[in-house]
Amino acid sequence: MNLSFLWIIFAGIAWGLDGLLRSKISWLSPLTIVTVEHAIGFVILAVVGMKHFRFPKLSTKAWFALIGVALFSGLIGTYAFTWAMANINYSSFGVMFLLLKLQPLFAILAALIFLGERPRASFYPLAVFAIISAYFLSFWKAWTQLPDFGSDTTRAVFAGLVAALCWGSATVFSRFLSHQGYKARTMTAFRLGMVAVLWVIVLGLFSLFGIETGQQITFHTQQLTLIAWVALLSGVLGTTMYYRGIKHIHATSASIFELAFPITGFIIDIFVQHKTPDMYQIIGGVFLVIVMIFVARTKKK
Predict the structure, then answer these.
(1) Three-state DSSP class for 148?
(2) What is the DSSP string of 12-38?
(3) Domain ranges, residue 164
(4) In a domain, 27, yes or no
(5) Domain contains 301
(6) What is the pLDDT of residues 179-234, one digit of tens each?
(7) At what angle do helices 30-48 and 79-87 cross, to 10 degrees?
(8) pTM of the full predicted structure?
(9) 268 pLDDT above the threshold of 50
(10) Nearest to residue 5, comparing CAs of 249, 267, 169?
(11) Total domain count, the chain
(12) CA distances (Å), 272 to each of 111, 121, 223, in order?
């Protein structure tokens, strides 16, 4: 019996709990969290895999793909997600996590742009339905009034969409690297280390030009421990379990098992945040899930 689906479910739970841990360090700036978590994740993987680590010989295209993964997945995507959660005071986990289910949509669009892979014609109406579902999921009062596009919630939604766009695009580059025979653990370690270095460079430029970032330089033991758990859950365990499961499961099935991610978010909302989703959000979420399952079945011509 193929139990690979359990790895994807466990990965979804790990990613869901990641959001809860981030809420415990909400007083830190998103820049601080993202920079330190990637550095710690890189150290963890480097220590664990040091015995079997071999520096891979990367082609020029592989280097560009790795930089693309680091740029979209870590530098922009993770920061946008952390900033979005901080902007709504780490509430509405389920809604924000469901928005990330738009990743396959953006992955297919990225494959069209970067690789010239044209999806079936049925993809385009599905994409429209997905966007409409995401709209009502995010702005559940849109049935009676237009959303306030200057509110914190609206900014958080757009940041969440940026995160989904970046992570979906990074999937294209990750797939290229996997097809080149590079091991997932090695590429994950390289991505984490590269993102940490890129953020240090960005912070250095901010400091050089006098741009205020709210970056905290010193940490308490408790803060570092929580960031280490974030790095371990999402950056190491979640990613490793997901790649282990996805090897033996079709994309359509994986998209269903990945629902453990938003379901964990809604459980946190109800039992930890003491918030229940509105009926319109439930309807929008159900439609979004159904549409994205069909999107996952859309293959290139």
Answers:
(1) coil
(2) HHHHHHHHHHHHTTTTS-HHHHHHHHH
(3) 4-296
(4) yes
(5) no
(6) 676 666 777 777 788 888 887 787 777 777 766 655 555 567 777 888 888 888 88
(7) 140
(8) 0.78
(9) yes
(10) 249
(11) 1
(12) 38, 43, 21
